[in-house]
Structure formats: structure tokens, C-alpha cells
Amino acid sequence: MENIIIKVEETIVTSFINTQNELEYTVNKADDGGFFEIDNLNKMTKEELTDILISSLDIDNENIEIIN
Q1: Which of 7, 13, 60, 65 has the fewest CB atoms within 10 Å, counting from its CB?
Q2: What is the DSSP secondary structure assignment for residue 6, as one 8-state letter?
């Protein structure tokens, strides 16, 4: 079964069937965001842009999982 994704205003719910055959879900609510001005955006790879986000948002590199 494919993931179920529900969007309601500023909230997104994602769910899937986990290994215990349960319907597992996560609720994500909009939070403060922003933008980065990048001069050479077209020349950057997805990995380089991901690195910018990780370092700029002070995300813990050791426990991160990149989902492409």
C-alpha cells in the first residue's frame, strides 16, 4: 500500500503501514521558514543544497536521514 498523505491548511499528515502491521502516522505543522539567496543556484547539486540547509538550520548531522 502506498503512503497516505493528507493536507489540511497548514498541517500535513503522512501515514504508512509499519512492520508490525499498524497504521503509523506523523503530523507536520507549518513552522517558521524562510529562504536563502543563492547566486549560482542552477550550478548546485541537490546534495550541495541539502548541505546548505543542514548547516544553516543547525540540524544534527549524526542522526539525519535524507529522503530523496
Answers
A1: 65
A2: E
